[in-house]
Write a structure and sequence with these properties.
CATH superfamily of the largest domain: Aldolase class I
Low-confidence stretches: 337-366
Number of helices: 12
Radius of gyration: 22 Å
Oligomer: single chain
Structural class: alpha/beta
Helix content: 25-40%
Mean pLDDT: 91
Number of domains: 2
Order of helices and strands: HHHEEEEEHEHEHEHEHHEHEHEH
Bound molecules: S-adenosyl-L-homocysteine
CATH architecture of the largest domain: Alpha-Beta Barrel
Largest sheet: 10 strands, mixed
Strand content: 15-25%
Number of strands: 12
CATH topology of the largest domain: TIM Barrel
Distance between the termini: 32 Å
């Protein structure tokens, strides 16, 4: 049996693990700090542990972050990190620098089962859930690569669970990873700076509110059930009335007093004047902001990005209704880091990388 990976444990689980191997609870705090605050993976370097424990730990456990395959930087400062998670699967994180803060977008699944019509991850199908160590490991690796600013603050100040996969369909692992993000002995992020983005899994939104309320973003994309059923198929199970009610319940315990609605603007599909007007009445009961995302085309998709004048018209209608609305700048195009268009290229790239590795091995053994 393989040794447990200590990156898979939050504070409570690590405390229980230390108890099970006959060690004191405070060891968990020491280990969390070494692993997450200082990015240490070598037990021998953990100088405040008793020598005997330092020698014992490598026989009991490992500290294994996901393997970083590549880290690329676009001219606008966006960075894309690609991770090999074994079995021919790769996932990625994207770092987006903004004035005054930096957000890391992390993945929670390899592939996705929800199959939203406009999303390239969905087109690849679902491979598997990521483990806790694979989710927090993306932050671990990105922190190591990006480091601290001149004031000594970490460059990554915010995390959004908005990469590949549906975080609420991998609930336990996503929440355990979030607990580590919030833990002062690990990353110490405030609940307002960690955002879960979901296509709208209503029972899991309620569970999140009870177990670990953080900022919430909902991938809305349509103002009525008929259209949303075609774009976000999970809507058939949890239609808009239920979703809006879940948002209202969530806000009772949320660390922010609004929900963010994401809305991908697709030419002629959901960007008409009447769609914007219908959105206003749909969301009337929910304190919210809108984040409009011009559709990112990907090979094999027949959708097109909305025309700039239609984007402006749409946004104006929402703004005139008093709804705070922003349009996401398309970032990192040069490194294919824009949301939703990554996976096909990752897969191909992973295959290419796997191929190159195999070729290399063949050269070494021939
Ligand atoms: N499953 C979660 C998180 C992953 S999707 C969710 O649905 O929220 C992250 C965001 O990227 C979502 O808002 C999604 O709708 C958006 N997105 C997916 N494909 C896109 C594309 N081709 N162009 C623009 N945005 C896209």
């Amino acid at each position: 049996m393989s040794l447990p990976n200590l990156l898979d444990f939050d504070a409570a689980q690590l405390t229980a693990w230390f108890a099970a191997v006959g060690e004191k609870p405070f060891r968990a705090v020491q280990l969390l700090r070494w692993m997450h605050r200082y990015g240490e993976t070598d037990f021998a370097a953990m100088t405040n542990l008793a020598r005997s424990l330092r020698e014992k730990l490598p026989t009991l456990a490992t500290i294994t972050p996901p393997a970083l395959l590549s880290a690329r930087r676009a001219s606008d400062g966006t960075r894309k990190f690609l991770f090999d998670i074994g079995g021919g699967n790769a996932v990625e994180s994207v770092f987006i620098p903004e004035a005054g803060y930096g957000a890391l977008c992390v993945s929670t699944q390899a592939g996705c089962a929800l199959d939203c019509a406009f999303c390239s991850t969905g087109k690849q199908g679902f491979s598997r859930n990521l483990g806790v160590g694979e989710i927090i490991g993306q932050l671990w690796q990105a922190n190591k690569a990006l480091g601290r600013d001149p004031k000594g603050e970490r460059v990554i100040s915010n995390v959004v669970l908005m990469g590949m996969g549906e975080p609420l369909a991998n609930f336990d692992n996503s929440v355990t990873a979030i607990r580590l993000m919030l833990d002062d002995n690990a990353y110490g992020l405030s609940r307002r700076r960690v955002t879960v983005s979901t296509a709208g899994l209503v029972p899991a939104i309620d569970r999140l509110r009870e177990e670990c309320p953080v900022a919430l973003a909902i991938s809305l994309h349509a103002p009525d059930d008929a259209l949303r059923d075609t774009l976000v198929p999970i809507n058939k199970k949890y239609p808009l009335a239920n979703l809006m009610a879940a948002c209202r319940r969530y806000l009772e315990k949320a660390p922010r007093d609004f929900v963010t609605f994401e809305y991908v603007l697709i030419d002629g599909v959901n960007d008409r004047e009447q769609d914007a007007k219908a959105l206003i009445s749909l969301t009337r009961q929910v304190s919210c902001k809108f984040n409009m995302i011009p559709f990112n085309p990907f090979p094999g998709s027949s959708y097109r990005r909305s025309r700039p004048d239609h984007i402006r018209r749409f946004v104006d209608i929402l703004l005139r209704a008093g709804i705070i609305t922003t349009v996401r700048r398309t970032r990192g195009d040069a490194i294919d880091a824009a949301c939703g268009q990554l996976v096909g290229q990752i897969r191909n790239k992973t295959r290419r990388i796997a191929q190159t590795t195999r070729n290399m091995l063949e050269e070494q053994i021939s």
